[in-house]
Amino acid sequence: VSIYLDRSKQGGAGMVVDWEQETGLLMTSGDVRIIRIWDTDREMKVQDIPTGADSCVTSLSCDSHRSLIVAGLGDGSIRVYDRRMALSECRVMTYREHTAWVVKAYLQKHPEGNIMSVSVNGDVRFFDPRMPESVKVLQIVKGLTALDIH
Predict the structure, then answer these.
(1) Residue 48: which CATH number?
(2) pLDDT-based confidence at residue 66 (cuts at 50, 70, 90)
(3) Per the domain annotation, does 36 fall within a domain?
(4) If you average pLDDT over residues 93-104, what whole number do you get?
(5) 122 in a domain, yes or no?
(6) What HEC string does 45-63 produce?
(7) How far apart are CA 64 and CA 91, in angstroms?
């Protein structure tokens, strides 16, 4: 489950969350410079991951099998974090191919693990996390404000 509150006209993302059902972890972010991870069973904060960006987080997606988190940002970047690593090293990849607000970033679940992202400009990008740039690009309608991938 992911929630997106469209506040792009106001300059912020509001609150962005992604729920990891297998582990009971809730990833949260938005108009802050961290991704906060909550353990919903114990009702406590587990970890704060610095985004390393000056822009808001607009989309989150996680995979419990590989401990990865993918964040889409308001500056168009897609950032991949490994929550097992030290905070200073946990950002393992940054893609800067979108030129506008990322509406959705999606991490395909195990075993494929590919990343899909869509910006408000309608460019859909497919990434293999082992590669430094997108492997495929599609153009859809411009002006997107919401999108979900299943």
Answers:
(1) 2.130.10.10
(2) confident
(3) yes
(4) 96
(5) yes
(6) EEEEEECCCCCCEEEEEEE
(7) 16
Decide: 103 and 144 in contact? Cβ < 8 Å: yes
CB contact set of 129 (below 8 Å; sequence gap of 6+): 68, 80, 93, 113, 114, 115
Comparison of pLDDT for 8 and 18, the residue scoring more: 18
The residue among 125 and 9 whose pLDDT is bigger is 125
Q: Can you give the pLDDT at residue 10?
A: 52
pLDDT of residue 88: 92
Output the CA–CA distances (angstroms, integers) from residue 12 to 2, 9, 73, 150, in the order listed.
17, 8, 10, 25
Distance CA 68, CA 80 (A): 7
Q: Are the CB atoms for 145 and 8 separated by under 8 Å?
A: yes
How many domains does one find in the chain? 1
**Residue 89 included in any domain:** yes
- In this predicted structure, what is the pLDDT of residue 149? 83
